[in-house]
Design brief:
This protein is α/β, with parallel strands linked by helices. It has helices at about 45-55, 75-80, 100-105, 120-130, 145-160, 175-190, 205-210, 235-240, 295-300, 325-330, 340-345, 350-355, 370-385, 400-415, 430-445, 460-465, 485-495, and strands at about 10-15, 20-30, 35-40, 60-65, 70, 85, 165-170, 195-200, 215-220, 220-225, 260-270, 270-280, 285-290, 310-315, 320, 335, 365, 370, 420-425, 450-455, 465-470, 475-480. The longest helix has 16 residues, at about 175-190. The N and C termini lie far apart (about 55 Å).
Length: about 500
Protein backbone atom coordinates (compact mmCIF):
# COMPACT_ATOMS: atom_id res chain seq x y z
CA UNK A 1 0.00 0.00 0.00
CA UNK A 2 2.78 2.45 0.88
CA UNK A 3 4.32 1.98 -2.62
CA UNK A 4 1.48 4.05 -4.11
CA UNK A 5 1.90 7.70 -4.99
CA UNK A 6 0.28 9.78 -2.27
CA UNK A 7 -2.81 11.81 -3.13
CA UNK A 8 -1.49 14.41 -0.72
CA UNK A 9 1.91 14.82 0.91
CA UNK A 10 3.25 17.39 3.35
CA UNK A 11 7.02 17.45 3.85
CA UNK A 12 8.87 19.05 6.76
CA UNK A 13 6.20 21.68 7.44
CA UNK A 14 7.23 24.43 9.85
CA UNK A 15 4.87 27.01 11.33
CA UNK A 16 5.80 29.50 14.04
CA UNK A 17 3.56 31.87 15.95
CA UNK A 18 4.80 34.53 18.40
CA UNK A 19 6.44 32.65 21.25
CA UNK A 20 5.70 29.13 20.03
CA UNK A 21 6.71 26.77 17.20
CA UNK A 22 3.40 25.05 16.44
CA UNK A 23 4.85 22.73 13.76
CA UNK A 24 8.46 21.65 13.73
CA UNK A 25 9.32 19.81 10.52
CA UNK A 26 6.12 17.72 10.28
CA UNK A 27 5.68 15.27 7.41
CA UNK A 28 2.41 13.51 6.60
CA UNK A 29 0.85 11.77 3.59
CA UNK A 30 -2.42 10.11 2.61
CA UNK A 31 -2.72 7.48 -0.12
CA UNK A 32 -5.58 7.00 -2.59
CA UNK A 33 -8.29 4.83 -1.09
CA UNK A 34 -6.81 5.11 2.42
CA UNK A 35 -8.33 6.28 5.70
CA UNK A 36 -5.39 7.80 7.57
CA UNK A 37 -5.87 8.89 11.19
CA UNK A 38 -4.05 11.97 12.47
CA UNK A 39 -3.81 11.83 16.25
CA UNK A 40 -2.28 13.82 19.08
CA UNK A 41 -3.19 15.62 22.27
CA UNK A 42 -4.96 18.97 22.12
CA UNK A 43 -2.25 21.45 21.20
CA UNK A 44 -0.12 18.82 19.43
CA UNK A 45 -0.38 20.68 16.10
CA UNK A 46 -3.13 18.77 14.25
CA UNK A 47 -5.36 21.80 13.65
CA UNK A 48 -2.42 23.98 12.62
CA UNK A 49 -1.27 21.36 10.13
CA UNK A 50 -4.75 21.17 8.61
CA UNK A 51 -4.97 24.98 8.43
CA UNK A 52 -1.68 24.98 6.51
CA UNK A 53 -3.14 22.37 4.18
CA UNK A 54 -6.31 24.43 3.76
CA UNK A 55 -4.47 27.66 3.01
CA UNK A 56 -5.61 29.41 6.18
CA UNK A 57 -1.99 29.56 7.41
CA UNK A 58 1.04 29.86 5.16
CA UNK A 59 3.92 27.60 6.26
CA UNK A 60 7.26 29.12 7.28
CA UNK A 61 9.00 26.10 5.78
CA UNK A 62 8.35 22.82 4.00
CA UNK A 63 6.42 21.74 0.90
CA UNK A 64 2.95 20.45 -0.06
CA UNK A 65 2.52 17.96 -2.91
CA UNK A 66 -0.57 16.61 -4.66
CA UNK A 67 0.56 13.51 -6.50
CA UNK A 68 4.00 14.43 -7.88
CA UNK A 69 3.17 18.12 -8.26
CA UNK A 70 4.27 20.69 -5.71
CA UNK A 71 1.44 23.09 -4.85
CA UNK A 72 0.84 26.21 -2.81
CA UNK A 73 -2.45 26.81 -1.04
CA UNK A 74 -3.08 30.53 -1.22
CA UNK A 75 -6.38 30.20 0.63
CA UNK A 76 -9.36 27.91 1.37
CA UNK A 77 -10.95 28.45 -2.07
CA UNK A 78 -7.78 27.34 -3.81
CA UNK A 79 -7.53 24.24 -1.58
CA UNK A 80 -11.14 23.42 -2.46
CA UNK A 81 -10.49 23.96 -6.17
CA UNK A 82 -7.60 21.50 -5.97
CA UNK A 83 -9.92 18.82 -4.56
CA UNK A 84 -9.32 19.15 -0.81
CA UNK A 85 -12.56 19.14 1.18
CA UNK A 86 -12.79 19.88 4.91
CA UNK A 87 -15.55 18.70 7.23
CA UNK A 88 -14.99 20.68 10.39
CA UNK A 89 -15.91 19.85 13.97
CA UNK A 90 -17.16 23.41 14.44
CA UNK A 91 -20.27 23.91 12.32
CA UNK A 92 -20.12 26.70 9.73
CA UNK A 93 -23.70 26.85 8.51
CA UNK A 94 -26.10 29.70 7.80
CA UNK A 95 -29.06 28.81 10.02
CA UNK A 96 -31.59 31.00 8.18
CA UNK A 97 -30.94 29.31 4.84
CA UNK A 98 -32.22 25.96 3.63
CA UNK A 99 -30.21 22.76 3.59
CA UNK A 100 -29.80 23.05 -0.18
CA UNK A 101 -28.61 26.66 -0.02
CA UNK A 102 -26.03 25.75 2.62
CA UNK A 103 -24.71 22.77 0.67
CA UNK A 104 -24.32 24.74 -2.57
CA UNK A 105 -23.51 28.13 -1.02
CA UNK A 106 -21.51 30.11 -3.58
CA UNK A 107 -22.21 27.49 -6.25
CA UNK A 108 -25.98 27.65 -6.69
CA UNK A 109 -27.12 26.30 -10.09
CA UNK A 110 -28.22 29.11 -12.40
CA UNK A 111 -30.57 29.66 -15.30
CA UNK A 112 -30.37 32.44 -17.84
CA UNK A 113 -29.86 35.99 -16.56
CA UNK A 114 -28.31 34.62 -13.35
CA UNK A 115 -31.57 33.32 -11.92
CA UNK A 116 -31.28 30.42 -9.44
CA UNK A 117 -32.46 27.12 -10.86
CA UNK A 118 -34.49 26.07 -7.81
CA UNK A 119 -35.87 22.75 -9.17
CA UNK A 120 -32.36 21.58 -10.08
CA UNK A 121 -31.06 22.74 -6.67
CA UNK A 122 -33.75 20.75 -4.80
CA UNK A 123 -33.20 17.69 -7.00
CA UNK A 124 -29.40 17.69 -6.65
CA UNK A 125 -29.59 18.18 -2.90
CA UNK A 126 -32.21 15.47 -2.32
CA UNK A 127 -30.05 13.04 -4.31
CA UNK A 128 -27.12 13.71 -1.98
CA UNK A 129 -29.29 13.48 1.14
CA UNK A 130 -30.64 10.12 -0.02
CA UNK A 131 -27.10 8.73 0.16
CA UNK A 132 -26.92 9.82 3.81
CA UNK A 133 -30.29 8.28 4.73
CA UNK A 134 -31.39 11.38 6.66
CA UNK A 135 -34.96 12.30 7.63
CA UNK A 136 -34.99 15.89 6.31
CA UNK A 137 -35.07 17.31 2.78
CA UNK A 138 -33.47 20.04 0.68
CA UNK A 139 -36.02 22.71 1.66
CA UNK A 140 -35.59 22.33 5.44
CA UNK A 141 -34.30 25.39 7.25
CA UNK A 142 -30.93 24.50 8.80
CA UNK A 143 -31.73 26.33 12.03
CA UNK A 144 -34.62 23.90 12.60
CA UNK A 145 -32.32 20.87 12.54
CA UNK A 146 -30.65 19.22 15.54
CA UNK A 147 -26.89 19.61 15.96
CA UNK A 148 -26.46 16.02 14.77
CA UNK A 149 -28.41 16.70 11.58
CA UNK A 150 -26.52 19.94 11.00
CA UNK A 151 -23.36 17.85 11.11
CA UNK A 152 -24.86 15.64 8.41
CA UNK A 153 -25.38 18.77 6.27
CA UNK A 154 -21.66 19.53 6.66
CA UNK A 155 -20.87 16.00 5.51
CA UNK A 156 -23.25 16.37 2.54
CA UNK A 157 -21.18 19.33 1.33
CA UNK A 158 -18.23 17.01 0.73
CA UNK A 159 -20.29 14.86 -1.62
CA UNK A 160 -20.93 17.76 -4.02
CA UNK A 161 -17.29 17.92 -5.14
CA UNK A 162 -14.91 15.68 -7.03
CA UNK A 163 -12.73 15.39 -3.97
CA UNK A 164 -9.21 14.00 -4.05
CA UNK A 165 -8.76 14.23 -0.28
CA UNK A 166 -11.41 14.68 2.41
CA UNK A 167 -10.47 15.76 5.95
CA UNK A 168 -12.89 14.75 8.70
CA UNK A 169 -12.28 16.66 11.96
CA UNK A 170 -14.11 14.98 14.88
CA UNK A 171 -17.07 14.20 12.58
CA UNK A 172 -18.96 12.02 15.06
CA UNK A 173 -18.88 14.44 18.00
CA UNK A 174 -22.60 15.23 17.59
CA UNK A 175 -23.86 12.07 15.87
CA UNK A 176 -26.02 9.28 17.20
CA UNK A 177 -24.87 5.67 16.86
CA UNK A 178 -27.18 5.18 13.86
CA UNK A 179 -25.82 8.32 12.18
CA UNK A 180 -22.26 7.12 12.80
CA UNK A 181 -23.01 3.96 10.85
CA UNK A 182 -24.22 6.07 7.91
CA UNK A 183 -21.09 8.24 8.12
CA UNK A 184 -18.81 5.19 8.12
CA UNK A 185 -20.66 3.87 5.07
CA UNK A 186 -20.05 7.21 3.32
CA UNK A 187 -16.36 7.01 4.21
CA UNK A 188 -16.22 3.46 2.87
CA UNK A 189 -17.75 4.65 -0.44
CA UNK A 190 -15.24 7.51 -0.70
CA UNK A 191 -12.42 5.09 0.05
CA UNK A 192 -13.64 2.63 -2.62
CA UNK A 193 -13.63 5.44 -5.19
CA UNK A 194 -9.96 6.19 -4.50
CA UNK A 195 -10.37 9.30 -2.36
CA UNK A 196 -7.74 9.81 0.32
CA UNK A 197 -9.25 10.44 3.75
CA UNK A 198 -7.64 12.14 6.75
CA UNK A 199 -9.58 11.27 9.90
CA UNK A 200 -9.01 13.32 13.06
CA UNK A 201 -10.63 11.94 16.20
CA UNK A 202 -9.93 11.30 19.88
CA UNK A 203 -12.23 8.27 19.86
CA UNK A 204 -10.01 5.22 19.80
CA UNK A 205 -12.79 2.77 18.95
CA UNK A 206 -13.49 4.70 15.73
CA UNK A 207 -9.83 4.92 14.81
CA UNK A 208 -9.37 1.16 15.12
CA UNK A 209 -12.65 0.47 13.35
CA UNK A 210 -12.21 2.43 10.11
CA UNK A 211 -8.59 3.54 9.57
CA UNK A 212 -5.69 1.93 7.70
CA UNK A 213 -2.80 3.89 9.18
CA UNK A 214 -2.27 6.20 12.15
CA UNK A 215 0.15 9.13 12.34
CA UNK A 216 0.87 10.83 15.65
CA UNK A 217 1.95 14.38 16.48
CA UNK A 218 3.28 15.48 19.86
CA UNK A 219 4.37 19.01 20.80
CA UNK A 220 4.33 20.08 17.15
CA UNK A 221 6.59 17.24 16.02
CA UNK A 222 5.95 14.12 13.97
CA UNK A 223 6.27 11.03 16.20
CA UNK A 224 5.63 8.23 13.71
CA UNK A 225 3.18 6.33 11.50
CA UNK A 226 1.95 2.80 12.13
CA UNK A 227 -0.39 0.36 10.42
CA UNK A 228 -3.64 0.31 12.41
CA UNK A 229 -3.87 -3.48 12.31
CA UNK A 230 -0.37 -3.81 13.76
CA UNK A 231 -0.82 -1.66 16.89
CA UNK A 232 -3.17 -1.14 19.85
CA UNK A 233 -4.65 1.65 21.98
CA UNK A 234 -1.93 1.48 24.61
CA UNK A 235 0.86 1.89 22.06
CA UNK A 236 -0.87 4.83 20.35
CA UNK A 237 -1.59 6.50 23.69
CA UNK A 238 2.04 6.21 24.73
CA UNK A 239 3.12 7.66 21.38
CA UNK A 240 0.72 10.57 21.86
CA UNK A 241 1.58 11.55 25.42
CA UNK A 242 5.08 10.14 25.85
CA UNK A 243 4.18 7.98 28.82
CA UNK A 244 1.96 5.11 29.87
CA UNK A 245 -1.52 6.09 30.94
CA UNK A 246 -3.01 4.75 34.16
CA UNK A 247 -6.61 3.87 33.29
CA UNK A 248 -7.35 1.98 36.50
CA UNK A 249 -10.21 3.29 38.61
CA UNK A 250 -9.25 4.25 42.13
CA UNK A 251 -11.26 2.57 44.86
CA UNK A 252 -13.49 4.81 46.99
CA UNK A 253 -11.53 5.55 50.16
CA UNK A 254 -13.58 8.50 51.38
CA UNK A 255 -16.94 8.53 53.13
CA UNK A 256 -20.13 8.95 51.11
CA UNK A 257 -22.17 11.68 52.80
CA UNK A 258 -25.79 12.72 53.04
CA UNK A 259 -28.14 13.17 50.09
CA UNK A 260 -27.40 16.52 48.43
CA UNK A 261 -29.89 16.22 45.56
CA UNK A 262 -33.05 14.16 45.26
CA UNK A 263 -35.47 14.04 42.34
CA UNK A 264 -38.94 12.49 42.79
CA UNK A 265 -41.25 11.63 39.91
CA UNK A 266 -39.85 14.38 37.68
CA UNK A 267 -41.33 14.67 34.19
CA UNK A 268 -40.94 17.12 31.33
CA UNK A 269 -43.53 16.53 28.64
CA UNK A 270 -42.41 13.86 26.18
CA UNK A 271 -38.70 14.40 26.93
CA UNK A 272 -38.60 12.26 30.08
CA UNK A 273 -41.11 11.00 32.63
CA UNK A 274 -41.39 9.82 36.23
CA UNK A 275 -37.67 10.16 36.91
CA UNK A 276 -36.44 9.58 40.48
CA UNK A 277 -32.86 9.41 41.79
CA UNK A 278 -30.49 10.66 44.50
CA UNK A 279 -26.96 12.09 44.44
CA UNK A 280 -24.99 12.06 47.69
CA UNK A 281 -22.05 14.15 48.75
CA UNK A 282 -18.81 12.35 47.99
CA UNK A 283 -20.08 10.33 45.02
CA UNK A 284 -20.16 10.53 41.25
CA UNK A 285 -23.44 9.39 39.71
CA UNK A 286 -23.16 8.68 36.00
CA UNK A 287 -26.08 8.98 33.57
CA UNK A 288 -25.79 6.78 30.50
CA UNK A 289 -28.08 6.16 27.54
CA UNK A 290 -28.51 6.67 23.84
CA UNK A 291 -28.93 10.14 22.36
CA UNK A 292 -32.53 11.18 23.06
CA UNK A 293 -32.79 9.18 26.28
CA UNK A 294 -33.46 12.38 28.26
CA UNK A 295 -30.17 12.74 30.15
CA UNK A 296 -29.27 16.27 29.06
CA UNK A 297 -32.88 17.41 29.41
CA UNK A 298 -32.87 16.35 33.08
CA UNK A 299 -29.71 18.37 33.65
CA UNK A 300 -31.26 21.38 31.92
CA UNK A 301 -34.33 21.10 34.15
CA UNK A 302 -32.20 20.99 37.29
CA UNK A 303 -30.39 24.11 36.06
CA UNK A 304 -33.62 26.00 35.38
CA UNK A 305 -33.43 25.87 31.58
CA UNK A 306 -36.57 23.71 31.32
CA UNK A 307 -39.79 23.71 33.35
CA UNK A 308 -40.89 20.29 34.64
CA UNK A 309 -44.46 19.19 34.04
CA UNK A 310 -44.57 17.03 37.20
CA UNK A 311 -42.48 15.93 40.16
CA UNK A 312 -40.23 17.72 42.62
CA UNK A 313 -36.59 18.59 43.26
CA UNK A 314 -35.13 18.46 46.78
CA UNK A 315 -31.85 19.93 47.98
CA UNK A 316 -30.61 18.62 51.34
CA UNK A 317 -34.13 17.23 51.88
CA UNK A 318 -35.96 20.51 51.24
CA UNK A 319 -38.24 20.89 48.17
CA UNK A 320 -37.15 23.74 45.88
CA UNK A 321 -38.41 25.39 42.71
CA UNK A 322 -35.75 26.13 40.10
CA UNK A 323 -37.25 28.46 37.51
CA UNK A 324 -34.11 29.89 35.94
CA UNK A 325 -30.32 29.43 35.90
CA UNK A 326 -30.10 32.29 38.39
CA UNK A 327 -32.30 30.25 40.77
CA UNK A 328 -30.09 27.19 40.25
CA UNK A 329 -26.87 29.11 40.90
CA UNK A 330 -28.35 30.73 44.01
CA UNK A 331 -29.28 27.26 45.33
CA UNK A 332 -25.84 25.82 44.60
CA UNK A 333 -26.54 23.88 41.40
CA UNK A 334 -23.92 24.30 38.66
CA UNK A 335 -23.94 22.93 35.11
CA UNK A 336 -20.89 22.34 32.91
CA UNK A 337 -22.68 22.13 29.53
CA UNK A 338 -22.04 19.70 26.70
CA UNK A 339 -21.14 22.54 24.31
CA UNK A 340 -18.37 24.25 26.27
CA UNK A 341 -17.49 26.64 23.43
CA UNK A 342 -21.03 27.72 22.64
CA UNK A 343 -22.56 27.65 26.13
CA UNK A 344 -19.76 27.45 28.70
CA UNK A 345 -17.22 30.02 27.56
CA UNK A 346 -16.87 33.41 25.91
CA UNK A 347 -14.01 32.51 23.57
CA UNK A 348 -12.95 36.12 22.91
CA UNK A 349 -12.55 36.90 26.63
CA UNK A 350 -9.51 36.13 28.75
CA UNK A 351 -9.21 33.27 31.22
CA UNK A 352 -9.78 35.39 34.32
CA UNK A 353 -12.97 37.01 33.06
CA UNK A 354 -14.38 33.63 31.99
CA UNK A 355 -13.58 32.17 35.39
CA UNK A 356 -15.31 34.94 37.35
CA UNK A 357 -18.23 35.66 34.99
CA UNK A 358 -21.07 34.25 37.20
CA UNK A 359 -20.00 36.29 40.24
CA UNK A 360 -19.20 39.72 38.83
CA UNK A 361 -21.80 41.34 41.09
CA UNK A 362 -20.15 39.81 44.16
CA UNK A 363 -16.62 41.03 43.48
CA UNK A 364 -17.25 44.63 42.56
CA UNK A 365 -15.51 47.49 44.35
CA UNK A 366 -18.22 50.11 44.00
CA UNK A 367 -19.07 50.49 40.30
CA UNK A 368 -15.81 48.85 39.22
CA UNK A 369 -14.52 45.29 39.16
CA UNK A 370 -12.14 44.36 41.99
CA UNK A 371 -9.32 43.17 39.74
CA UNK A 372 -7.27 41.81 42.64
CA UNK A 373 -10.15 39.58 43.76
CA UNK A 374 -10.67 38.34 40.21
CA UNK A 375 -7.01 37.45 39.79
CA UNK A 376 -6.96 35.72 43.17
CA UNK A 377 -9.91 33.51 42.15
CA UNK A 378 -8.26 32.66 38.84
CA UNK A 379 -4.90 31.87 40.46
CA UNK A 380 -6.55 29.62 43.05
CA UNK A 381 -8.37 27.46 40.52
CA UNK A 382 -5.56 27.50 37.95
CA UNK A 383 -3.34 25.88 40.57
CA UNK A 384 -6.04 23.60 41.95
CA UNK A 385 -7.09 22.26 38.53
CA UNK A 386 -3.63 22.46 36.91
CA UNK A 387 -4.83 24.76 34.11
CA UNK A 388 -1.98 25.24 31.66
CA UNK A 389 -1.95 28.79 30.39
CA UNK A 390 0.72 31.53 30.29
CA UNK A 391 -1.47 33.68 32.53
CA UNK A 392 -4.92 35.11 33.13
CA UNK A 393 -4.68 37.47 30.14
CA UNK A 394 -4.60 34.55 27.67
CA UNK A 395 -7.70 34.46 25.44
CA UNK A 396 -9.59 31.33 26.39
CA UNK A 397 -10.22 30.47 22.73
CA UNK A 398 -6.47 29.84 22.37
CA UNK A 399 -6.39 27.12 25.05
CA UNK A 400 -6.53 23.39 24.34
CA UNK A 401 -9.86 21.61 24.77
CA UNK A 402 -8.82 20.07 28.08
CA UNK A 403 -7.78 23.41 29.55
CA UNK A 404 -10.95 25.08 28.28
CA UNK A 405 -12.97 22.42 30.09
CA UNK A 406 -11.01 23.07 33.28
CA UNK A 407 -11.81 26.79 32.98
CA UNK A 408 -15.54 25.97 32.83
CA UNK A 409 -15.26 23.61 35.81
CA UNK A 410 -13.20 26.17 37.74
CA UNK A 411 -15.81 28.85 37.02
CA UNK A 412 -18.46 26.80 38.80
CA UNK A 413 -16.24 25.48 41.59
CA UNK A 414 -15.45 29.07 42.52
CA UNK A 415 -19.17 29.43 43.28
CA UNK A 416 -18.89 26.57 45.87
CA UNK A 417 -21.83 24.53 44.50
CA UNK A 418 -23.77 21.88 46.38
CA UNK A 419 -24.26 19.87 43.19
CA UNK A 420 -21.97 19.88 40.14
CA UNK A 421 -23.51 18.56 36.90
CA UNK A 422 -21.05 17.81 34.10
CA UNK A 423 -22.51 17.01 30.67
CA UNK A 424 -20.10 15.15 28.31
CA UNK A 425 -17.01 16.10 30.35
CA UNK A 426 -14.44 15.03 27.75
CA UNK A 427 -16.15 15.66 24.43
CA UNK A 428 -13.48 16.55 21.84
CA UNK A 429 -10.65 16.12 24.36
CA UNK A 430 -7.55 13.99 23.80
CA UNK A 431 -6.82 10.84 25.77
CA UNK A 432 -4.25 12.43 28.09
CA UNK A 433 -6.55 15.31 29.04
CA UNK A 434 -9.42 12.84 29.46
CA UNK A 435 -7.45 11.07 32.14
CA UNK A 436 -6.84 14.38 33.92
CA UNK A 437 -10.55 15.32 33.82
CA UNK A 438 -11.52 11.86 35.13
CA UNK A 439 -9.07 12.19 38.04
CA UNK A 440 -10.41 15.67 38.71
CA UNK A 441 -14.02 14.44 38.91
CA UNK A 442 -13.01 11.66 41.31
CA UNK A 443 -11.02 14.16 43.39
CA UNK A 444 -13.99 16.52 43.59
CA UNK A 445 -16.14 13.68 44.92
CA UNK A 446 -13.45 12.89 47.48
CA UNK A 447 -13.63 16.53 48.62
CA UNK A 448 -17.35 16.12 49.33
CA UNK A 449 -18.96 17.41 46.16
CA UNK A 450 -22.09 15.72 44.82
CA UNK A 451 -21.27 15.13 41.15
CA UNK A 452 -23.56 14.14 38.26
CA UNK A 453 -21.79 13.05 35.07
CA UNK A 454 -23.65 12.62 31.77
CA UNK A 455 -21.63 10.77 29.14
CA UNK A 456 -22.17 9.01 25.82
CA UNK A 457 -18.92 7.07 26.26
CA UNK A 458 -19.35 3.79 28.09
CA UNK A 459 -15.67 3.48 29.20
CA UNK A 460 -15.89 6.96 30.69
CA UNK A 461 -19.09 6.42 32.68
CA UNK A 462 -17.77 3.06 33.93
CA UNK A 463 -14.46 4.64 34.92
CA UNK A 464 -15.64 7.65 36.92
CA UNK A 465 -18.98 6.61 38.44
CA UNK A 466 -19.86 5.19 41.86
CA UNK A 467 -23.37 4.48 40.56
CA UNK A 468 -24.73 4.51 37.01
CA UNK A 469 -28.28 5.53 36.08
CA UNK A 470 -29.20 3.79 32.81
CA UNK A 471 -31.86 5.54 30.72
CA UNK A 472 -33.95 4.55 27.73
CA UNK A 473 -36.57 6.63 25.90
CA UNK A 474 -36.98 9.19 28.69
CA UNK A 475 -37.17 6.71 31.56
CA UNK A 476 -34.75 5.41 34.16
CA UNK A 477 -34.55 1.68 33.52
CA UNK A 478 -32.11 0.72 36.26
CA UNK A 479 -29.46 2.10 38.60
CA UNK A 480 -26.25 0.07 38.91
CA UNK A 481 -23.63 0.08 41.65
CA UNK A 482 -20.03 0.21 40.41
CA UNK A 483 -19.40 -3.31 41.72
CA UNK A 484 -22.26 -4.92 39.76
CA UNK A 485 -22.28 -3.10 36.43
CA UNK A 486 -20.88 -4.62 33.22
CA UNK A 487 -20.79 -3.40 29.65
CA UNK A 488 -23.18 -6.16 28.61
CA UNK A 489 -25.75 -5.20 31.27
CA UNK A 490 -25.55 -1.53 30.34
CA UNK A 491 -26.04 -2.21 26.64
CA UNK A 492 -29.08 -4.36 27.35
CA UNK A 493 -30.72 -1.78 29.59
CA UNK A 494 -30.12 1.31 27.43
CA UNK A 495 -31.38 -0.59 24.39
CA UNK A 496 -34.70 -1.22 26.13
CA UNK A 497 -34.11 -4.98 26.26
CA UNK A 498 -34.25 -5.35 30.02
CA UNK A 499 -37.42 -4.60 31.98
CA UNK A 500 -37.65 -1.71 34.41
CA UNK A 501 -35.97 -2.02 37.77
CA UNK A 502 -36.40 0.26 40.73
CA UNK A 503 -33.85 3.05 40.94
Amino acid sequence: MTDQTAVLRLEKIVKTFPGVRALDGVSFSVLPGEVHALMGENGAGKSTLMKVLGGIHQPDGGEIYMGERRVRMAGPLEAKAKGIVFIHQELSLAEELTVAENIYLGELPRRSFGRIDWPRLWQQTDAILAKLNVQFDARTRVGDLSIANQQMVEIARALTHEAKAVIFDEPTASLTDAEKVVLFDVIADLKASGVGIIYISHRMEEIFRITDRISVLRDGQYRGTVETAATDEEAITQLMIGRKLDLSRAAVTHEIGEVALEVRGLSCGALYRDVSFQVRRGEVVGFYGLVGAGRTEIAETLFGLRTPSAGEILLAGEPVRVQSPADAIARGISLVPEDRKGQGLVLGMNCRDNMTLPQVDDIKAGPFMAEGAEIAIFDQYRDRLDIRTPGWKQQVGNLSGGNQQKIVIGKWLSMHPNVLIVDEPTRGIDVGSKSEIHKLLRALAAQGYAVMVISSEMPEVLHVSDRIVAMYAGRIMRTFGAEEVTEEKLIQVISGIEADSAA
